[in-house]
Amino acid sequence: MAPFVPRKKLQVEPANPKRVAAPLADTKLIRKPKLGTSRPRKKDIPEGLWTKCTKCGTMIYDKELDENLKVCMHCGYHFQISARERINALVETCSFEEMDASMTSVDILNFKGVASYTEKLKQYQQSTGSKDAVVTGICLIGPYRVGLGVMDFNFLGGSMGTVVGEKLTRLIETCTDRALPLIIISASGGARMYEGMFSLMQMAKTSAALAYHARNRLPYISVLTHPTTAGVMASFASLGDLILAEPGAMIGFAGPRVIKDTTQAELPPGFQTAEFLQQHGLIDDIVPRGEMKQRLINYLGFLTGN
User: Fold this and answer.
1) Domains of the chain, CATH where assigned
2) Using an 8 Å Cβ cutoff, are 167 and 98 in contact?
3) What is the pLDDT of residues 144-174, one digit of tens each?
């Protein structure tokens, strides 16, 4: 019988072998892309360099807009401009002699509101650099010496108070005394509510001065810009021997909603625009801002006989 020989033990590797990390140099990092709906940020546009056209929506470089007298080069939309800008665009260099530059309004009614009338006046005097909503003076437009009054809508909406009425009346009377033609460029929301009846009185005062100016056979050109409404339109703005307007200007007395509620009638579209009023005989000519100076020179020559 053969002797018993024990079996050799088999070396079996464990089921979970020890993992050895790869060398650092061979390791590759894969970054998982972030998923989301975030949109790329728009580039910041510095303020004060570009203006969006109200009519066509085009972004316009402010420097180019100023050089074009604040008229959109793409659609012809006329932006509002200050009284000083209008004067610089119309009169001959260094010819403007301002009248009553220091005249300021007072809070004669002691008006109370969110802010007092006195505070409002100081605020707009600082922002516009003018004492009130009109600048008046004697100047040269082409070869013609004229009296010029320019309203500024940026000052309390171009509203007519005692100072506006007084300055315009003095301008009209000066033109009458010196036998000068008169030009008034209007941009106003009407009478100034802070002055109540004193403001409404300016309608009669300016109209009376114009009647005396007309009696002396002196020409008066009224230029209507956006907007010219209410008490200003119902007085001196509509009394010109020749009435001009800028394209697209809103011109009327009350707003369309008030008129519709009062008359209970359907109103024709665009009935308060310069173009509609020219078609119906109120306005003599519509003149783009860039052509205004030369057109005024032509009309002054015709009205004065020169």
Assistant:
1) 50-79 (no CATH), 82-304 (3.90.226.10)
2) no
3) 999 999 999 999 999 999 999 999 999 999 9
